[in-house]
Every structure is written in C-alpha cells, then in structure tokens.
Amino acid sequence: MNSKELxxxxxxxxxxxxxxxxxxxxxxxxxxxxVLLELYKRPPKFDELVLTIEKLSSVKVIxxxxxxxxxxxxxxxxxxxxxxxxxxxxxxxxxCAxxxxxxxSRGASPDFKNMRGAALIDPQSCERLExxxxxxxxxxxxxxxxxxxxxxxxxxxxxxxxxxxxxxxALALATKNIHCGVLAELCWSDDPEYxxxxxxxxxxxxxxxxxxxxxxxxxxxxxxFVSKEKLEDIISCLEKLxxxxxxx
Length: 248
Ligand code: PML
What we know:
It is built from 6 helices and 12 strands.
C-alpha cells in the first residue's frame, strides 16, 4: 500500500437511539467509493448512519496481530467463568472482571443501552474512567495492510467462513488496543445472532470464547481495563494513532 495517500474511513450506525454497527478501514483514495458502499450496506437496518473520511498524514505499521486461540463451552456459565479466569491472569481483579461481565450483560451505558465506544475500567478499583459513560471510547484508525490476505490465511487456519465478517475487525481492534497500552479487553458482540466473544491481553493474545451470551440477546460491547495513571496517553493512542497490521 502506498503510505503517502491513505485515508481513514469509519462508519457508525444506530437504530431506535441505540448503537448497532461500526467499522474501521484505512484505504487508498481510489478504494474509498467501493468501501463506502460496503460499509453502508453493513448494518441490516438503521435510523442514522454516519460515514467519516479523513486523510492521514502518517501510519504506523505493526508486524503481527495478537495470536488467536478459540475455546467452545457447553454453557454460558462455564464460558464466562473462563473469561473471568483469563482476565485475572492478565492482571484484573476478580471483582472487576465480574463487574465487567455484568456491565456488558445489562448494557454498559448509564441508561442500560449498549455503548458506541468501550467502557474503560480500572483493573483494581473497578472505577469507570471514561469522561462520557454514554459514549465511551472508540478505537479508530486501524486496519489490515491486506484484508483479503488475512481472510485467506484465517480460512487456511480452519477459521469458519461464518466468522470472517467479524473476526478480522475485532482482532485488528484488539491488536491496536493492546499496542496502545490497554491491560486487557473483554468483548462480545451486540449482534443478537453472534455468541462468540473474546478476552485479549499482551500475555494471552486474542482468546475467542463461545458462547459469551445467549442467542437472541442484543446486549454486548467492549470493556478496556486501563490503569488510571496511563489513561490520557492510552485514549490519545486509541483515538489518534493510525495503525496498519501486516500479518497474523
Ligand atoms: C463485534 O464487533 O461485534 C464483536 C465481535 C467479536 C468477534 C469475536 C470473534 O469471532 O473472534
């Protein structure tokens, strides 16, 4: 990719006042129209869809994404217990890990809706750290150097085709989050049909866990565990530093 002329393209959509879809791309100018159409078609329904195009002055390239691991569980209870254990191994207290699960289960914003961005939580005190707890913090300006190559490699590694719509975006986002200094991330989708979620951390990589919620449940989102002292630097990195990821 010619790094001189790169643009950040982002989409967010809401339905009935609730965030339902978001996506991030970094592209050359000539690819923008095709991708705008693709992102416009992405949410199955919306009342409002916002597309943003921004020229980037420089982009940092990261060689490798977080390593991927996948675990399937028979029950939601076992899956969530495993997620809590992983968060504890990553430096999050058990009570804050449990709090994060409860938060995403009920809708993390103060009006119990899903948040557009992530909730930020201190890993020891469980204090909410984002300035606007309705909006949260959104990781933007991140993409793959070659999205098609990444999809091919994921298929070769026996990742099922049905996961390709969400996994590449989620993995790119988690990789940027950890690069920016997030201690650990907990996520599951707000798509009622998508039960797989993940825990990501520098120590463990990107650990996919199924099921993190019951089928049909529209609640989901992201929690980033961040220590209070590093808060400003991490938020600035998540929102401002453009990152392209080379390989899996
Ligand atoms: C989302 O963006 O909706 C969350 C997707 C989580 C993807 C988990 C996976 O399949 O790896």
